[in-house]
Amino acid sequence: MTLAPTVLVRWLRAVGEPSRLRLLALCADAALSVSDMAQALKQSEPRVSRHLKILSEAGLIERLRQGQWVHYRLAVAPEASSFVRGLLAQLDRRDAQLLHDATSARAAIAADAQEAGHGTESRLGRALGEFVSAGAPAAVHGAGTQPARGAGRARIRRAARFLVPGAEGCPRWRSIRV
Asked: Which of 21, 28, 48, 50 is the most exposed place for a label (fewest CB within 10 A)?
């Protein structure tokens, strides 16, 4: 495998910053989101995104779209993968900072999984699911709210019909205060 000097220089420039080297080490362990890596490195998400963009444009990592999230992993192209793995082989994986980064990334992943409890489902999807499972007709209005009137009531009823098929057959359908 031989590389053009311009490619090698581009790769060296991309990894020539400590935070980017740490990000490569994290991506070698698992595909991670920007927020997971930002928590692990204790840096802001925009800053981490900028580093990831540089690594991605150099061809050293890949973006994986998963629903509304984007995860990053090492590139699978043989030349780039070989370069990164060779570079990471030179790192002391027992370095305190690298160990802390890896531990923090695992904790962030575990917290995300526990918080979501629904895989990659969006917050809106979870909220609608909770709305439907709570029996939408009863959940349409909250305590102390004023009922909707006129066109507002009709829109809410249409939404409830869409979210809860067969809701019109419910004996309480007409008595819903929306």
From this structure: 50
Residue 122 and residue 172: Cα distance in Å, rounded? 31
Which DSSP letter does residue 146 get?
P
How far is residue 156's CA from residue 178's CA, in Å, rounded to a whole number? 7
pTM, two decimal places: 0.63
DSSP string across 24-67: HHHHHH--EEHHHHHHHHT--HHHHHHHHHHHHHTTSEEEEEET
Those residues of the chain that have pLDDT short of 70 are 114-178
Q: SS3 of 141, please?
A: coil
Distance CA 162, CA 140 (A): 13
The whole-number pLDDT of residue 47 equals 96
